[in-house]
Amino acid sequence: MKKLILLVCCTCFFLIFFTSMQAADKKTAFDSEQTAQIETIIHNYLLKNPQVLLEAAQKLQEQDNAKTNAKIEEIKAKIPKYKNEIFSLTGPGRTFVGNPNAKILLVEVLQYQCSHCQVVEPLVEKLLKANPDVGLIIMQWPFFGAEAIYAAKAALAAQKQGKFAELNAAFLSSHELLNMEKIDALIKSISGLNVDKLKQDMQDKSLDDGLKANFKLCQDLGLIGTPTLIFANRELTKFSLIAGQTPDVEGDLNNALKQVR
Questions:
Q1: Is 232 left (phi over 0), alpha (psi -120 to 50) or beta?
Q2: How many whole angstroms separate alpha carbon 208 and alpha carbon 206?
Q3: Is the residue at 211 inside a domain?
Q4: Do residues 157 and 202 make contact, with C-beta atoms less than 8 angstroms apart?
Q5: Do 228 and 109 form a contact (C-beta atoms < 8 A)?
């Protein structure tokens, strides 16, 4: 699908290029007959040389990958500077899960409207079960809008009733875009969760402050999206990063863990 999109973009580029040439300078504008001739030339050339589109698509993909890799390296370089903020175990915009004496810390930056986060979550859980010396810090970054913020605040507020784990799991296993109605339905589905108290706790100003702090930290780091996973040893001297969903998330998780052991 991505390759098809790139091919379409390349085709559009040829057409837009010649159209823009015409619009750029009215003195040298092509008349309708010349425009038709140019379009025919492009059409025939592409039919005879379809590999040009594939070559252009490949080049675009290489350039896109290079930009992404450069951005990831920039993020990696910033982690030591912000390590104390990233790996803080406390704060109103984050939740610590697991062994409080963990030798390895994993920060998972997520939001509940993120389909990639839903895909990655069971792999993170598998990693934690296989490595009990890893502690998980879930940092909310709900940049998708009002529904994302609402869900994040609900999960954070659920901590006061000891129901974060259940609500977090419900949100991440929904496998659909969460609107307010669906979020409320999932909240009500959690056994033993006092919904009225939860709604009241969601109004706590500290939650807004925590989310604002998360937004600023993610901006300072230059994160490119969710999920973002950052590993560190407890001494905060070794770091590794997985930025977004990768072709082999499980393999990358294991490799990132090895880098900080």
A1: beta
A2: 5
A3: yes
A4: yes
A5: yes
Same-domain check for residues 53 and 145: no
Number of domains in the chain: 2
**Per-residue confidence (pLDDT) for residue 6, from 0 to 100:** 47
Q: Which amino acid is at 176?
A: E
Half-sphere exposure of 143 (CA within 13 A, CB side): 16
Q: pTM here?
A: 0.78
**pLDDT tens digits along 115-152:** 999 999 999 999 999 999 999 999 999 999 999 999 99
- Name the residue with higher pLDDT: 157 or 91: 157
Provide the domain limits for residue 42: 2-58
Average pLDDT, the chain: 89
Q: How far is CA 95 from the centre of its chain?
A: 18
* Rounded CA separation 243/141 (Å): 14
Residue 10 exposure: Cα atoms within 13 Å on the Cβ side: 20
Answer yes or no: do 110 and 236 share one domain.
Answer: yes
